[in-house]
Amino acid sequence: MTSQADRAYWDETTKQLLGWPEVLAMLQPVSKAGLRAKREIRPFGPQEHALWQERMEDLRAVQAVRDDAAWVKELQEELQMVPDLRALFQLIGQGATLRQADFFEVKQFLWHGYAVEELLVQKGLVFGWWEALAWEPLLRRLNPPGPLVPAFSLAELAGDVELLRLHQELSVLDEALFAEKKAQGDRLRAQYGRKPGKDGQLVFDKLDAALGVARQDADLMLLQDTVFEVVFRTAESLAMTELVQRREAKLAEIEDQETATLQALVEAFRPDVEAMSTALEALGRVDLTLAKAALANKWSAGLPEWITAAGQSVVFEVKAEAVACAGLQGVSSAEHPADAHPVYIGWSIEAGFHPVAREAVEKRGGTFTTLDFELQPGVGLITGPNMGGKTVVLKTFGLLQALAQHAMPVPARRYRFHPLERIGVSGGDEQSMVSGLSSFGAEMQRLAALVNGTGRALLLLDEVARTTNPEEGEALAIGLASYLLNSGHSALFASHFPGVTEVSGLQLYRVAGLKRSLLDHLQQASEQSDVLQRLQSAMDYTLVKSGPGDVPKDAVRLAECFGLPQAVLDKTQAVLQRKEGPTG
């Protein structure tokens, strides 16, 4: 389900480029209500700090107690059993007639919801939005006299004397009918030496001496007469016919009474349907929060810190022992006293990573380099060699921002963020066979949509204008960077164009790049996979501050490592030397 807030915040292209679907798949509530809460998850805008902070306090509280694995397991088991009764609650609210099976589902909801509340109380978890439901009195309405049980039967309900009497009378009729059938079977066995089968049939061979008697027996009716055998079925005696008729009449009475009882239950629960609906939503929220805490533990994640308009960082006071158990990188309020002067008013990332990218690197046997990065409101520029991780930096930054504004844990030791109305990513190659646009045309169309969109944005732009001729492409990148500096948006560029680094006011970074001492080892690799593995070990993916004109030039060396013919490389070097002119 895509909410209006979600659509305003970002588009599907941005979600896909940031790897949002893959990361969101790691969030795994166990209940139907929790899965619905996950589908309805949305970003919180700059004016929704109080709502965002409430979600983060939920996460902190659950994270602090989830070191008790047995308790977590029991809580998840109870949540998993909670049925999603939104549609059923609507029917009760409308006064519709329900079935007995429907009220069994209502009892399961009450039974397991009550268990969840007791488990939360056991750990002292108190949420301001959790409205206590009268679980036990509601359960009593669907319970026989005595201790509470999870099962449900209309016939056993406390106080329904009439229905209980009718069922008792039905039992008497059933016993009498069984006794009559047994007596008939016993007589036939005494007469013919065998009882009818389960299908009520009795088969005689044509040469059987008892066949003549059987044809005259009032308890047998001819079913089939063949060349070799005669088949009879048991006939219903007058006594049995009377019992069957009385039983059918009793069932009709029970049906009428059950309908009346079910309708009475609907009316009894009708005043409580809003409270039960609220409780269902609350159970889903608990489940989603528990899933967030599990994800935080998996990532050894920190809690994002919202930078207010005044430049102050909103943090939470977390007990050290709780943080240690949960793997949280917490920040105590003591580290940031109320009267301290704020240092950051934009973004700060410490040891951040993209879970999908890190998993891919580690599967190849590599070591993922985490991201340390600061950006003030404005425009940042990242330069660096090909395959140096610039795109991963953009995606990591964007993902952290999205997770933070969705009140999720972030895969970073620490993430301070400035909330914005929207986020947008351009991947640099937006070619569309459907629209008929070239790569450059599609890219310009997307950039225009991102820049002209409503609301202040965080824009992540990868290799702007790389798909047109380099001279015009560099000019476009310079023009866009200059425009964004005064647009009210914040942006992070990744570019190879050296001219962009000369734009005044940009916050300049570059990937540290190839370690010169290891380049010779790359050239010795014989297989492409070996080259990639050695490249990862030779590349320093650390993001460092840089200055104007600082653009690494490693493309030719990388091309050599990947086996491009030497003649191509020689010609390339000659062209570069002519462009650079005589040295010294």
From TrEMBL:
User: What terms describe the molecular function in GO for this protein?
Assistant: ATP binding; ATP-dependent DNA damage sensor activity; mismatched DNA binding
UniProt xrefs under InterPro entries: DNA_mismatch_repair_MutS_C, DNA_mismatch_repair_MutS_sf, MutS, P-loop_NTPase
Q: Its domain of life?
A: Bacteria
Show where the DNA mismatch repair proteins mutS family domain sits. 377-577
Q: What is this protein called?
A: DNA mismatch repair proteins mutS family domain-containing protein
- Tell me, which GO biological process terms does this entry list? mismatch repair
Going by the UniProt record, its keywords in alphabetical order are: ATP-binding, DNA-binding, Nucleotide-binding
